[in-house]
């Protein structure tokens, strides 16, 4: 559940584009483990297939996730609660543990109509480069973008 301070003034809008950041519990570097990063990827696609979201770009950093998507329903908090819950169940099964996977709450930014979606997607995907984890996005395994191929990198955008 988000803290009251984080949710004050938050109004979900169906078909709006959101940039969301969610951190792992105690900032554990869970997504350095390929199987756990793959859970995130699978659950993002699951949300898309269910019609909850349309993913534009995402990157799983070692201890947090950036997700740029169009919300296809009218409740951002419910969408993210379902996503986090599904990820947590799958990750806990893989790790053979129980307990929280995610920090409560999330940071979100609803893009204005005049914000360039492709610029925002590039910003999301470039996080591993800015963090110094890699020098070229093609070296980082845990990301996706509807406009960027894994082989060409930013040459596509």
From TrEMBL:
Protein name: Transposase IS200-like domain-containing protein
SMART domains the record matches: Y1_Tnp
GO molecular function: sequence-specific DNA binding; transposase activity
Record domain Transposase IS200-like: where: 13-127
GO term, biological process aspect, one: DNA transposition
């Amino acid at each position: 559940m988000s803290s009251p301070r984080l949710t004050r003034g938050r109004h979900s809008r169906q078909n709006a584009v959101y940039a969301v950041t969610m951190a792992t519990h105690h900032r554990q570097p869970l997504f350095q483990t390929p199987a756990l990063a793959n859970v995130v990827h699978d659950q993002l696609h699951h949300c898309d297939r269910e019609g909850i979201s349309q993913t534009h770009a995402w990157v799983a950093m070692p201890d947090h996730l950036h997700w740029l998507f169009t919300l296809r329903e009218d409740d951002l908090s419910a969408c993210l609660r379902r996503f986090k819950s599904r990820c947590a169940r799958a990750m806990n099964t893989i790790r053979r543990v129980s307990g929280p996977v995610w920090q409560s709450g999330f940071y979100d930014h609803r893009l204005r109509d005049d914000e360039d979606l492709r610029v925002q997607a590039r910003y999301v995907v470039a996080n591993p480069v800015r963090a110094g984890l890699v020098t070229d996005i093609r070296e980082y395994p845990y990301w996706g973008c509807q406009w960027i191929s894994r082989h060409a990198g930013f040459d596509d955008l």
